[in-house]
Amino acid sequence: MTTKAVFVLWTLWETEYTDALMAVTTHLNDPQRGWFEGRVEATGDVNATLTLSTNAMVLEALFYKHNAGPLFKNGLADDNSYFARRATDEFNPPRRCLPGERVMRSAP
Q1: What contacts 24+ positions apart, CB below 8 Å, involve 85-91?
Q2: Is residue 49 part of a domain?
Q3: Is residue 93, in this structure, part of any structural domain at all?
């Protein structure tokens, strides 16, 4: 069972089953490094691999559960969100993860 699947199930459905899954999963982390990939159901062995994918999904699931919804409603950032304001601030552009302005060249 993968840690990220347990967190997603626990976030979306409040049932005794998802609570039981979470109880089995709570020890699959290292407080200094993050959440492990999961455990093998047949043997109980822990897959102690640490991946960005699992830890990002855990954070997103916790954010969703805490805020009762996704970061971006309808898949879009709200016009008044921090992201939208930073991306459109012409006096203080973020200069990270966005393409720079294209230089216009005149035809020869």
Answers
A1: none
A2: yes
A3: no
Locus of tokens 């049932």: 15
Domain with 35 in it: 3-88
- The tally of domains found in the chain comes to 1
Residue 97 lies in a domain: no
Q: At what angle do helices 16-25 and 3-12 cross, to 10 degrees?
A: 150
Cβ atoms of residues 52 and 32 within 8 Å: no
Q: What is the pLDDT along the chain (108 residues), one digit of tens a residue?
A: 899 999 999 999 989 999 999 999 999 999 999 999 999 988 989 999 999 999 999 999 998 888 777 666 666 666 777 777 777 777 776 666 656 666 777 776
